[in-house]
Amino acid sequence: MAIFISSFWVLVVICCLLYFFTKSSNLKSEDGAFKKFQMVYLVVYALAMAADWLQGPYVYALYDSYNMSKSEIEQLFVAGFGASMVFGTIVGSFADKYGRKTNCLLYGLLYGLSCLTKHFNNFWILMLGRLLGGTATSILYSAFESWLVYEHNSRGFDKELLSSIFSNATLSNSIVAIIAGLVAQKFADHFGYVAPFDVSLTVLVIMCVMIVILWSQNYGDAQASMTDSYQSAVTYLKTDSKILCLGLIQSLFEGAMYTFVLEWTPALTPDKATPAEGGETGIPHGWIFAGFMVAIMIGSSLFTILCKLGKVESFMRSVLFVAAASLCVPAFIPENQSLVFISFLVFEVCVGIFWPSMGTMRGKYVPEQVRSTIMNFFRIPLNFIVILILLQDFPRVVIFRCCVGFLCASFVMQQILYKLSQTTSTSAVPAPTKDPGSIPSKHQSVPSVTSVDKEKVPVDGVV
Protein backbone atom coordinates (compact mmCIF):
# COMPACT_ATOMS: atom_id res chain seq x y z
CA MET A 1 0.00 0.00 0.00
CA ALA A 2 2.74 2.46 0.99
CA ILE A 3 4.59 2.27 -2.33
CA PHE A 4 1.46 3.21 -4.28
CA ILE A 5 0.78 6.36 -2.28
CA SER A 6 4.39 7.48 -1.85
CA SER A 7 5.06 6.92 -5.55
CA PHE A 8 2.15 9.18 -6.44
CA TRP A 9 3.59 12.12 -4.49
CA VAL A 10 7.09 11.55 -5.89
CA LEU A 11 5.61 11.56 -9.39
CA VAL A 12 3.72 14.78 -8.66
CA VAL A 13 6.96 16.53 -7.63
CA ILE A 14 8.78 15.30 -10.74
CA CYS A 15 5.85 16.31 -12.94
CA CYS A 16 5.74 19.84 -11.51
CA LEU A 17 9.49 20.32 -11.93
CA LEU A 18 9.38 19.12 -15.54
CA TYR A 19 6.32 21.21 -16.32
CA PHE A 20 7.89 24.46 -15.13
CA PHE A 21 11.18 23.60 -16.84
CA THR A 22 9.51 22.91 -20.19
CA LYS A 23 7.19 25.89 -19.78
CA SER A 24 10.11 28.28 -19.40
CA SER A 25 12.08 26.76 -22.29
CA ASN A 26 9.22 25.86 -24.60
CA LEU A 27 8.54 27.56 -27.90
CA LYS A 28 5.96 30.30 -27.30
CA SER A 29 3.75 32.26 -29.63
CA GLU A 30 2.67 35.82 -29.02
CA ASP A 31 0.04 35.44 -31.73
CA GLY A 32 -3.29 36.09 -30.07
CA ALA A 33 -5.13 34.21 -32.81
CA PHE A 34 -3.04 31.10 -32.18
CA LYS A 35 -3.57 31.26 -28.42
CA LYS A 36 -7.32 31.52 -28.91
CA PHE A 37 -7.30 28.68 -31.44
CA GLN A 38 -5.30 26.43 -29.12
CA MET A 39 -7.55 27.20 -26.16
CA VAL A 40 -10.73 26.52 -28.12
CA TYR A 41 -9.41 23.17 -29.33
CA LEU A 42 -8.04 22.08 -25.95
CA VAL A 43 -11.27 22.91 -24.10
CA VAL A 44 -13.42 20.98 -26.58
CA TYR A 45 -10.93 18.09 -26.69
CA ALA A 46 -10.80 17.97 -22.88
CA LEU A 47 -14.61 17.79 -22.70
CA ALA A 48 -14.67 15.00 -25.30
CA MET A 49 -12.10 13.00 -23.35
CA ALA A 50 -13.80 13.77 -20.01
CA ALA A 51 -17.02 12.21 -21.32
CA ASP A 52 -15.06 9.05 -22.06
CA TRP A 53 -13.15 9.00 -18.76
CA LEU A 54 -16.32 9.48 -16.72
CA GLN A 55 -17.75 6.24 -18.09
CA GLY A 56 -14.70 3.99 -18.10
CA PRO A 57 -14.39 3.01 -14.42
CA TYR A 58 -18.05 2.03 -14.06
CA VAL A 59 -18.96 0.12 -17.21
CA TYR A 60 -18.08 -3.27 -15.73
CA ALA A 61 -19.49 -2.34 -12.31
CA LEU A 62 -22.82 -1.29 -13.84
CA TYR A 63 -23.17 -4.50 -15.84
CA ASP A 64 -22.32 -6.50 -12.73
CA SER A 65 -24.93 -4.58 -10.70
CA TYR A 66 -27.51 -5.63 -13.32
CA ASN A 67 -26.57 -9.25 -12.52
CA MET A 68 -25.10 -9.86 -15.95
CA SER A 69 -23.10 -13.07 -16.16
CA LYS A 70 -19.35 -13.03 -16.81
CA SER A 71 -20.02 -14.39 -20.30
CA GLU A 72 -22.56 -11.66 -21.06
CA ILE A 73 -20.20 -8.93 -19.84
CA GLU A 74 -17.40 -10.32 -22.03
CA GLN A 75 -19.75 -10.31 -25.01
CA LEU A 76 -20.62 -6.67 -24.37
CA PHE A 77 -16.95 -5.65 -24.20
CA VAL A 78 -16.08 -7.61 -27.35
CA ALA A 79 -19.04 -5.96 -29.11
CA GLY A 80 -17.68 -2.52 -28.23
CA PHE A 81 -14.26 -3.19 -29.73
CA GLY A 82 -15.86 -4.98 -32.69
CA ALA A 83 -18.11 -2.00 -33.40
CA SER A 84 -15.10 0.30 -33.28
CA MET A 85 -13.30 -1.97 -35.75
CA VAL A 86 -16.18 -2.33 -38.24
CA PHE A 87 -18.77 0.43 -37.90
CA GLY A 88 -16.31 2.94 -36.47
CA THR A 89 -14.08 2.61 -39.51
CA ILE A 90 -17.02 3.47 -41.77
CA VAL A 91 -18.65 6.22 -39.70
CA GLY A 92 -15.32 7.72 -38.63
CA SER A 93 -14.34 8.03 -42.27
CA PHE A 94 -17.39 10.18 -43.01
CA ALA A 95 -15.37 13.10 -41.66
CA ASP A 96 -13.34 13.50 -44.85
CA LYS A 97 -16.41 13.82 -47.06
CA TYR A 98 -19.07 15.37 -44.82
CA GLY A 99 -16.88 17.45 -42.54
CA ARG A 100 -14.77 16.96 -39.41
CA LYS A 101 -16.95 19.33 -37.36
CA THR A 102 -20.03 17.31 -38.31
CA ASN A 103 -18.30 14.08 -37.34
CA CYS A 104 -17.29 15.47 -33.95
CA LEU A 105 -20.93 16.37 -33.34
CA LEU A 106 -21.86 12.84 -34.37
CA TYR A 107 -19.46 11.59 -31.69
CA GLY A 108 -21.43 13.54 -29.09
CA LEU A 109 -24.74 12.19 -30.39
CA LEU A 110 -23.68 8.54 -30.54
CA TYR A 111 -21.92 8.56 -27.18
CA GLY A 112 -24.85 10.41 -25.62
CA LEU A 113 -27.28 7.75 -26.85
CA SER A 114 -24.91 5.12 -25.49
CA CYS A 115 -25.12 6.78 -22.07
CA LEU A 116 -28.93 6.66 -22.16
CA THR A 117 -28.92 2.90 -22.76
CA LYS A 118 -27.16 2.39 -19.42
CA HIS A 119 -30.47 3.12 -17.66
CA PHE A 120 -31.94 -0.16 -18.92
CA ASN A 121 -31.28 -3.54 -17.34
CA ASN A 122 -31.68 -5.32 -20.65
CA PHE A 123 -28.86 -7.17 -22.38
CA TRP A 124 -29.84 -6.17 -25.94
CA ILE A 125 -30.33 -2.49 -25.08
CA LEU A 126 -26.95 -2.52 -23.38
CA MET A 127 -25.53 -4.26 -26.45
CA LEU A 128 -26.88 -1.43 -28.59
CA GLY A 129 -25.17 1.01 -26.24
CA ARG A 130 -21.85 -0.81 -26.65
CA LEU A 131 -22.19 -0.69 -30.45
CA LEU A 132 -22.90 3.05 -30.33
CA GLY A 133 -20.07 3.66 -27.87
CA GLY A 134 -17.56 1.65 -29.89
CA THR A 135 -18.45 3.56 -33.05
CA ALA A 136 -18.17 6.88 -31.20
CA THR A 137 -14.71 5.96 -29.91
CA SER A 138 -13.36 5.68 -33.46
CA ILE A 139 -14.58 9.21 -34.15
CA LEU A 140 -12.99 10.47 -30.93
CA TYR A 141 -9.55 9.26 -31.97
CA SER A 142 -9.66 10.48 -35.56
CA ALA A 143 -12.02 13.39 -36.33
CA PHE A 144 -10.83 15.74 -33.57
CA GLU A 145 -7.18 15.43 -34.55
CA SER A 146 -8.05 15.72 -38.26
CA TRP A 147 -9.93 18.96 -37.56
CA LEU A 148 -6.99 20.32 -35.56
CA VAL A 149 -4.29 19.60 -38.14
CA TYR A 150 -6.35 21.05 -40.99
CA GLU A 151 -7.27 24.23 -39.13
CA HIS A 152 -3.75 24.76 -37.79
CA ASN A 153 -2.27 24.70 -41.28
CA SER A 154 -5.07 26.49 -43.12
CA ARG A 155 -4.79 29.41 -40.68
CA GLY A 156 -1.08 29.72 -41.39
CA PHE A 157 0.24 29.07 -37.89
CA ASP A 158 3.87 28.09 -37.35
CA LYS A 159 4.34 24.37 -38.11
CA GLU A 160 6.54 24.03 -35.05
CA LEU A 161 3.62 24.90 -32.77
CA LEU A 162 1.55 21.87 -33.81
CA SER A 163 3.61 19.47 -31.69
CA SER A 164 3.16 21.87 -28.77
CA ILE A 165 -0.62 21.56 -29.09
CA PHE A 166 -0.36 17.76 -29.08
CA SER A 167 1.81 17.87 -25.97
CA ASN A 168 -0.64 20.19 -24.20
CA ALA A 169 -3.53 17.95 -25.27
CA THR A 170 -1.85 14.92 -23.67
CA LEU A 171 -1.19 16.93 -20.51
CA SER A 172 -4.78 18.18 -20.30
CA ASN A 173 -6.13 14.70 -21.00
CA SER A 174 -4.28 13.31 -17.98
CA ILE A 175 -5.55 16.10 -15.72
CA VAL A 176 -9.09 15.58 -16.99
CA ALA A 177 -8.80 11.83 -16.37
CA ILE A 178 -7.93 12.38 -12.71
CA ILE A 179 -10.71 14.94 -12.20
CA ALA A 180 -13.23 12.77 -14.06
CA GLY A 181 -12.34 9.80 -11.87
CA LEU A 182 -12.98 11.81 -8.71
CA VAL A 183 -16.24 13.25 -10.02
CA ALA A 184 -17.48 9.86 -11.20
CA GLN A 185 -16.65 8.33 -7.83
CA LYS A 186 -18.58 11.04 -5.98
CA PHE A 187 -21.69 10.68 -8.14
CA ALA A 188 -21.55 6.87 -8.09
CA ASP A 189 -21.34 6.89 -4.28
CA HIS A 190 -24.38 9.14 -3.93
CA PHE A 191 -26.61 8.15 -6.87
CA GLY A 192 -25.49 4.72 -8.07
CA TYR A 193 -23.41 3.33 -10.91
CA VAL A 194 -25.56 4.87 -13.66
CA ALA A 195 -24.93 8.43 -12.39
CA PRO A 196 -21.46 8.84 -13.99
CA PHE A 197 -23.04 8.14 -17.38
CA ASP A 198 -25.57 10.93 -16.82
CA VAL A 199 -22.71 13.29 -15.96
CA SER A 200 -20.95 12.16 -19.14
CA LEU A 201 -24.09 12.92 -21.15
CA THR A 202 -24.17 16.44 -19.70
CA VAL A 203 -20.53 16.98 -20.64
CA LEU A 204 -21.24 15.78 -24.18
CA VAL A 205 -24.08 18.28 -24.55
CA ILE A 206 -21.79 21.12 -23.43
CA MET A 207 -19.11 19.92 -25.85
CA CYS A 208 -21.54 19.86 -28.78
CA VAL A 209 -22.77 23.39 -28.02
CA MET A 210 -19.18 24.66 -27.99
CA ILE A 211 -18.40 22.92 -31.29
CA VAL A 212 -21.47 24.43 -32.95
CA ILE A 213 -20.59 27.93 -31.75
CA LEU A 214 -16.78 27.98 -31.94
CA TRP A 215 -15.62 25.51 -34.59
CA SER A 216 -15.54 26.04 -38.35
CA GLN A 217 -16.17 23.23 -40.81
CA ASN A 218 -13.40 21.58 -42.82
CA TYR A 219 -13.17 18.57 -45.11
CA GLY A 220 -10.81 16.07 -46.66
CA ASP A 221 -11.83 15.35 -50.23
CA ALA A 222 -15.50 16.36 -50.26
CA GLN A 223 -15.79 15.67 -54.00
CA ALA A 224 -14.89 12.00 -53.75
CA SER A 225 -17.40 9.26 -52.97
CA MET A 226 -16.89 7.10 -49.89
CA THR A 227 -15.70 4.29 -52.16
CA ASP A 228 -13.14 6.62 -53.74
CA SER A 229 -11.96 7.71 -50.29
CA TYR A 230 -11.43 4.12 -49.19
CA GLN A 231 -9.64 3.29 -52.43
CA SER A 232 -7.42 6.37 -52.08
CA ALA A 233 -6.60 5.45 -48.49
CA VAL A 234 -5.69 1.90 -49.48
CA THR A 235 -3.56 3.24 -52.33
CA TYR A 236 -1.62 5.50 -49.96
CA LEU A 237 -1.06 2.58 -47.59
CA LYS A 238 0.21 0.42 -50.46
CA THR A 239 2.45 3.02 -52.09
CA ASP A 240 3.78 5.02 -49.14
CA SER A 241 5.80 2.82 -46.79
CA LYS A 242 6.02 5.59 -44.21
CA ILE A 243 2.24 5.71 -43.77
CA LEU A 244 2.07 1.91 -43.53
CA CYS A 245 4.83 1.84 -40.91
CA LEU A 246 3.09 4.59 -38.96
CA GLY A 247 -0.17 2.63 -38.95
CA LEU A 248 1.53 -0.55 -37.75
CA ILE A 249 3.38 1.33 -35.00
CA GLN A 250 0.12 2.82 -33.75
CA SER A 251 -1.83 -0.43 -33.91
CA LEU A 252 0.83 -2.53 -32.21
CA PHE A 253 1.56 -0.03 -29.44
CA GLU A 254 -2.07 0.76 -28.71
CA GLY A 255 -2.95 -2.94 -28.86
CA ALA A 256 -0.44 -3.52 -26.07
CA MET A 257 -1.67 -0.42 -24.23
CA TYR A 258 -5.35 -1.40 -24.24
CA THR A 259 -4.45 -4.93 -23.18
CA PHE A 260 -2.44 -3.40 -20.33
CA VAL A 261 -5.51 -1.39 -19.30
CA LEU A 262 -7.46 -4.64 -18.95
CA GLU A 263 -4.71 -6.44 -17.04
CA TRP A 264 -3.02 -4.00 -14.68
CA THR A 265 -5.51 -4.50 -11.83
CA PRO A 266 -5.14 -8.29 -11.55
CA ALA A 267 -1.40 -7.98 -12.13
CA LEU A 268 -1.02 -5.76 -9.06
CA THR A 269 -3.60 -7.51 -6.88
CA PRO A 270 -2.08 -9.92 -4.32
CA ASP A 271 -3.28 -13.50 -4.54
CA LYS A 272 -4.56 -13.28 -0.98
CA ALA A 273 -5.89 -9.81 -0.27
CA THR A 274 -7.15 -8.86 3.15
CA PRO A 275 -9.12 -5.80 4.27
CA ALA A 276 -6.07 -4.61 6.19
CA GLU A 277 -4.12 -4.53 2.96
CA GLY A 278 -6.45 -2.06 1.36
CA GLY A 279 -9.90 -3.52 1.01
CA GLU A 280 -11.43 -6.33 -0.93
CA THR A 281 -8.83 -6.34 -3.67
CA GLY A 282 -5.90 -5.25 -1.53
CA ILE A 283 -4.79 -2.32 -3.73
CA PRO A 284 -5.78 1.38 -3.73
CA HIS A 285 -7.13 1.67 -7.27
CA GLY A 286 -7.64 5.44 -7.06
CA TRP A 287 -4.06 6.19 -6.03
CA ILE A 288 -2.65 3.83 -8.65
CA PHE A 289 -4.78 5.27 -11.45
CA ALA A 290 -3.83 8.82 -10.42
CA GLY A 291 -0.18 7.78 -10.41
CA PHE A 292 -0.51 6.41 -13.93
CA MET A 293 -2.05 9.68 -15.13
CA VAL A 294 0.74 11.75 -13.56
CA ALA A 295 3.28 9.44 -15.25
CA ILE A 296 1.62 10.21 -18.59
CA MET A 297 1.88 13.93 -17.81
CA ILE A 298 5.59 13.43 -17.15
CA GLY A 299 5.84 11.75 -20.54
CA SER A 300 4.19 14.69 -22.29
CA SER A 301 6.75 17.06 -20.70
CA LEU A 302 9.61 14.75 -21.71
CA PHE A 303 8.25 14.84 -25.27
CA THR A 304 8.80 18.60 -25.34
CA ILE A 305 12.40 18.13 -24.19
CA LEU A 306 13.08 15.29 -26.62
CA CYS A 307 11.81 17.38 -29.53
CA LYS A 308 14.61 19.86 -28.86
CA LEU A 309 17.20 17.09 -28.90
CA GLY A 310 16.27 15.26 -32.09
CA LYS A 311 13.63 14.23 -34.59
CA VAL A 312 10.55 12.43 -33.35
CA GLU A 313 11.23 9.53 -35.75
CA SER A 314 14.57 9.05 -34.02
CA PHE A 315 13.78 9.29 -30.31
CA MET A 316 10.62 7.19 -30.62
CA ARG A 317 12.86 4.19 -31.27
CA SER A 318 14.24 4.46 -27.74
CA VAL A 319 10.79 5.10 -26.29
CA LEU A 320 9.35 1.95 -27.84
CA PHE A 321 12.35 -0.10 -26.72
CA VAL A 322 11.93 1.11 -23.13
CA ALA A 323 8.19 0.38 -23.29
CA ALA A 324 8.88 -3.20 -24.39
CA ALA A 325 11.51 -3.64 -21.68
CA SER A 326 9.16 -2.31 -18.98
CA LEU A 327 6.47 -4.91 -19.69
CA CYS A 328 9.05 -7.68 -19.54
CA VAL A 329 8.77 -7.38 -15.75
CA PRO A 330 5.13 -8.57 -15.41
CA ALA A 331 5.82 -11.04 -18.22
CA PHE A 332 8.77 -12.73 -16.51
CA ILE A 333 8.84 -11.55 -12.86
CA PRO A 334 5.12 -11.27 -12.01
CA GLU A 335 5.46 -12.15 -8.32
CA ASN A 336 7.34 -8.96 -7.36
CA GLN A 337 4.49 -6.45 -6.88
CA SER A 338 6.70 -3.40 -6.26
CA LEU A 339 8.86 -4.05 -9.31
CA VAL A 340 5.79 -4.67 -11.47
CA PHE A 341 4.25 -1.40 -10.30
CA ILE A 342 7.42 0.56 -11.10
CA SER A 343 7.54 -1.06 -14.54
CA PHE A 344 3.94 0.01 -15.13
CA LEU A 345 4.85 3.60 -14.25
CA VAL A 346 7.71 3.51 -16.77
CA PHE A 347 5.32 2.18 -19.40
CA GLU A 348 2.85 5.00 -18.69
CA VAL A 349 5.64 7.57 -19.12
CA CYS A 350 6.25 6.01 -22.54
CA VAL A 351 2.52 6.34 -23.26
CA GLY A 352 2.77 10.05 -22.41
CA ILE A 353 5.54 10.45 -24.99
CA PHE A 354 3.79 8.22 -27.53
CA TRP A 355 0.55 10.24 -27.89
CA PRO A 356 2.01 13.62 -28.96
CA SER A 357 4.72 11.86 -30.98
CA MET A 358 2.15 9.93 -33.02
CA GLY A 359 0.05 13.05 -33.48
CA THR A 360 3.09 14.90 -34.79
CA MET A 361 4.05 12.12 -37.20
CA ARG A 362 0.48 11.68 -38.43
CA GLY A 363 0.31 15.41 -39.05
CA LYS A 364 3.51 15.10 -41.06
CA TYR A 365 2.86 11.99 -43.14
CA VAL A 366 -0.89 11.30 -43.43
CA PRO A 367 -2.46 13.01 -46.50
CA GLU A 368 -5.05 15.67 -45.69
CA GLN A 369 -7.74 14.59 -48.16
CA VAL A 370 -8.11 11.12 -46.56
CA ARG A 371 -6.75 11.83 -43.09
CA SER A 372 -9.74 10.58 -41.09
CA THR A 373 -10.18 7.55 -43.32
CA ILE A 374 -6.56 6.44 -42.92
CA MET A 375 -6.59 7.10 -39.18
CA ASN A 376 -9.61 4.82 -38.83
CA PHE A 377 -7.88 2.17 -40.93
CA PHE A 378 -5.06 2.30 -38.37
CA ARG A 379 -7.56 1.27 -35.67
CA ILE A 380 -8.67 -1.94 -37.41
CA PRO A 381 -5.68 -4.12 -36.37
CA LEU A 382 -5.69 -2.42 -32.95
CA ASN A 383 -9.25 -3.54 -32.22
CA PHE A 384 -8.56 -6.97 -33.70
CA ILE A 385 -5.65 -7.42 -31.28
CA VAL A 386 -7.77 -6.48 -28.26
CA ILE A 387 -10.68 -8.71 -29.35
CA LEU A 388 -8.29 -11.62 -29.87
CA ILE A 389 -6.88 -11.18 -26.36
CA LEU A 390 -10.36 -10.89 -24.84
CA LEU A 391 -11.58 -14.07 -26.52
CA GLN A 392 -8.63 -16.17 -25.35
CA ASP A 393 -8.22 -17.49 -21.84
CA PHE A 394 -4.48 -16.90 -21.73
CA PRO A 395 -2.57 -16.87 -18.42
CA ARG A 396 -1.64 -13.33 -17.43
CA VAL A 397 2.10 -13.81 -18.03
CA VAL A 398 1.33 -15.00 -21.56
CA ILE A 399 -0.79 -11.90 -22.18
CA PHE A 400 2.03 -9.62 -21.07
CA ARG A 401 4.50 -11.56 -23.21
CA CYS A 402 2.20 -10.93 -26.16
CA CYS A 403 2.30 -7.22 -25.27
CA VAL A 404 6.10 -7.32 -25.24
CA GLY A 405 5.98 -8.93 -28.67
CA PHE A 406 3.67 -6.21 -29.99
CA LEU A 407 5.96 -3.50 -28.63
CA CYS A 408 9.08 -5.13 -30.06
CA ALA A 409 7.37 -5.27 -33.45
CA SER A 410 6.44 -1.58 -33.16
CA PHE A 411 10.09 -0.83 -32.35
CA VAL A 412 11.14 -2.58 -35.57
CA MET A 413 8.56 -0.60 -37.55
CA GLN A 414 9.80 2.65 -35.98
CA GLN A 415 13.36 1.77 -36.98
CA ILE A 416 12.17 1.25 -40.56
CA LEU A 417 10.23 4.53 -40.49
CA TYR A 418 13.31 6.35 -39.21
CA LYS A 419 15.43 5.01 -42.07
CA LEU A 420 12.74 5.93 -44.60
CA SER A 421 12.55 9.47 -43.17
CA GLN A 422 16.32 9.77 -43.59
CA THR A 423 16.36 8.66 -47.21
CA THR A 424 13.13 10.11 -48.62
CA SER A 425 11.46 13.49 -48.53
CA THR A 426 8.37 14.22 -46.51
CA SER A 427 5.18 12.52 -47.74
CA ALA A 428 3.15 14.49 -50.24
CA VAL A 429 0.48 16.21 -48.24
CA PRO A 430 -1.52 18.91 -50.03
CA ALA A 431 -1.95 22.28 -48.43
CA PRO A 432 -5.39 22.52 -46.81
CA THR A 433 -8.10 24.72 -48.20
CA LYS A 434 -11.43 25.89 -46.89
CA ASP A 435 -13.15 25.25 -50.19
CA PRO A 436 -14.05 21.55 -50.37
CA GLY A 437 -14.47 21.84 -54.10
CA SER A 438 -10.83 22.76 -54.58
CA ILE A 439 -9.37 19.85 -52.65
CA PRO A 440 -7.51 17.49 -54.99
CA SER A 441 -9.30 14.27 -55.74
CA LYS A 442 -7.55 11.00 -56.47
CA HIS A 443 -7.63 11.89 -60.18
CA GLN A 444 -5.64 15.08 -59.67
CA SER A 445 -1.93 15.42 -59.11
CA VAL A 446 -0.86 16.29 -55.60
CA PRO A 447 1.90 18.84 -55.14
CA SER A 448 4.96 17.52 -53.41
CA VAL A 449 6.20 18.92 -50.16
CA THR A 450 9.75 20.09 -49.98
CA SER A 451 12.04 19.03 -47.21
CA VAL A 452 12.20 21.28 -44.19
CA ASP A 453 15.29 23.30 -43.43
CA LYS A 454 17.47 21.28 -41.07
CA GLU A 455 18.04 24.33 -38.90
CA LYS A 456 14.38 24.38 -37.96
CA VAL A 457 12.91 22.40 -35.11
CA PRO A 458 13.01 18.70 -36.02
CA VAL A 459 9.32 18.00 -35.35
CA ASP A 460 7.61 19.23 -38.47
CA GLY A 461 3.91 19.69 -39.12
CA VAL A 462 2.14 19.56 -42.46
CA VAL A 463 2.98 22.39 -44.81
Question: How large is the radius of gyration?
Answer: 21 Å
Number of DSSP strand runs:
0
In terms of DSSP E residues, the strand content is: under 5%
Helix content: over 70%
Distance between the terminal alpha carbons, to the nearest Å? 50 Å
SSE string, helix = H, strand = E?
HHHHHHHHHHHHHHHHHHH
Quaternary structure classification: single chain
- Count of DSSP H/I helices: 19
Could you say which structural class the secondary elements and strand pairing correspond to? Answer: mainly alpha
- State the major sheet: none
**Low-pLDDT regions:** 273-281, 425-463
Shape: globular
* Mean pLDDT, all residues: 86
Walkthrough of the structure:
This protein is an all-alpha fold. Helix content is 75%, strand content 0%. The radius of gyration is 21 Å and the shape is globular. It has helices spanning 2-25, 32-55, 59-65, 70-85, 87-92, 94-98, 100-117, 123-140, 143-154, 160-191, 195-214, 226-239, 241-268, 285-309, 312-326, 328-332, 337-365, 371-391, 396-423. The protein is built from 19 helices and no strands.
Question: Could you name the key traits of this structure?
Answer:
globular, mainly alpha, about 475 residues
Give the topology.
Layout: H1 2-25, H2 32-55, H3 59-65, H4 70-85, H5 87-92, H6 94-98, H7 100-117, H8 123-140, H9 143-154, H10 160-191, H11 195-214, H12 226-239, H13 241-268, H14 285-309, H15 312-326, H16 328-332, H17 337-365, H18 371-391, H19 396-423
Helix pairs in contact: 1-14, 2-10, 2-11, 4-8, 4-18, 7-8, 7-9, 7-11, 10-11, 10-14, 10-17, 12-13, 12-18, 13-17, 13-18, 13-19, 14-17, 15-17, 15-19
